[in-house]
Design brief:
Strand order of the largest sheet: 1-2-5
CATH architecture: Sandwich
Helix content: 25-40%
Strand content: over 45%
Order of helices and strands: HEEEEEE
Number of domains: 1
Distance between the termini: 60 Å
Shape: globular
Number of helices: 1
CATH superfamily: Lipoprotein YajI-like
CATH class: Mainly Beta
């Protein structure tokens, strides 16, 4: 019985060690991926951002994304800050637009749903927070 417990402890201990290494490698990869998305977003521009409220209380955004990267970018990640009259952020929302913006090109987006807008929202600020390099 003691031998079986010792073998089980060694096997479980080895699995735990291997598992910890895998978890560590995955978390490093996630951090690198997020840094890369920020680098890509840093070379993209927003132009002509406007928004309106729909009949159902959703905010609909229209804007143009310009890609200044040397490669095509897909899955553009956006962040919306909903501000009150005082400038305080009331709500934050995010959205991924599953389109490709070619290198050096721009794409116009119309009526992108940003989520519910309460009566206190007076202004919405939009920023590009990420994107993924793609090869078509």
């Amino acid at each position: 019985m003691a031998v079986i417990l010792l073998i089980a402890a060694l096997v479980l201990g080895g699995c735990f060690f291997i598992g910890a290494g895998i978890v560590s490698g995955v978390s490093e990869s996630i951090v690198e991926n997020e840094q890369r998305k920020k680098e890509i977003a840093g070379k993209m521009e927003l132009e002509g951002f406007t928004w309106k409220s729909s009949a159902y209380g959703a905010a609909l955004a229209s804007f143009t994304v310009k890609n200044n990267n040397a490669f095509d970018v897909k899955d553009v990640e956006l962040s919306f800050d909903h501000l009150g009259a005082s400038g305080t952020i009331i709500r934050k929302s995010t959205k991924t637009v599953y389109e490709v913006v070619g290198a050096g090109n721009e794409v116009e987006f119309t009526d992108i749903d940003m989520g519910y807008v309460g009566g206190s929202v007076r202004k919405i600020e939009l920023s590009i927070t990420g994107g993924t390099e793609t090869f078509r």
